[in-house]
TrEMBL record:
It comes from the Bacteria. This is DUF4340 domain-containing protein. Transmembrane segments: none annotated. Coiled coil: none annotated. Pfam families: DUF4340. It comes from Chondromyces crocatus. Residues 78-105, 224-244 have a biased composition (Basic and acidic residues). Residues 76-109, 224-255 are annotated as: Disordered. InterPro entries: DUF4340. Residues 120-273 form the DUF4340 domain.
Amino acid sequence: MKVDRGFFVHLGLLVVAAVCAIGVWTRDKKATALSQADVTVWQGRADDVSRVVFEGKKKKVVLEAKQDKAGRYFLGTSEREAAAPKPHPEGEEDGHDHAHDHEPQPAKSTTFLSVGAGTKLAELLSPLKALRAIGKIGEERAAEFGLDAPEGTLTVTLKGAERKLEFGAATPGGADRYVRDPATGEVYAVKGDIFRDVDQAESRLMERDLHEWRDVDVSRAKVTAGDKSRELSRSSGADGKKFWADPASEGQADETAGNWMTKLDRLRPTEYVVSAPEGGTTVVRVDYTGAAGELGYVELQKGPAAEGGKPEYYLVTERLRLPGKVPATVAEQVEQDLGAVVK
């Protein structure tokens, strides 16, 4: 069968074009990936971050870096504007005195501690890497990136020098954010975690992990309540599961002590205070030990009962430098069951 020579010529040209296209596509893809990875908004190290301030439309968040013998952490405050009172419909009478309905409500302020999440945020902010650089844009395009009415302003203090960002709209897909550096006018796309962390600081940045170490690292615990104390050992059964036992009977689980330790471990701070209220008492303290020695501790504190109310409970550990307020219902159970553990 005779084949037209022109067919092979066209086929050859098609193959050459395809190879060239693949080479260009691969090169462009690599160049794009490289340029995205190399976009640096500003230089620095996470340890250079001493202060972070986010000012949104109805909130303000401040993070202050602190250092103690246990390491670096952040003390944060979040102030949210109170919701405006609902107006009472004209002409409607319900017998209620509405004289105070339109009085301005105080802003809600929350104090929180941040260790792990605060450190991760500092690492995102210094050095600040952008996913891509957009460049300078005119005012006619500001709305396109949500920068005609920014969602908020971020001020990061690095070694005493302030750097600012204006948050715009979410990028297509909603995962990341457009930002503008007001000092240069440059627009970038950055990781959305930065905006989400500062916008929802009291939930995303608040520290809830009680310790740096893991449960498997513990071999002993000393439970102290007043002038009484008791030692517990961490043992493993035939199935490999860990349980708490009396040191004199390490192979036999002490279910009462185990259940109590589980309840204590479930306590998690919902907010923090700079110092526990005066007149409080220590309900119980547990000191943990591992193969390498002391690991840390947890201390449950009980504040004085307010007039006509119930007392509040606080938790302090080697990782939580401030008293963290915990749900009173669970804390009360821990206190009530303590007598069955330490006799």
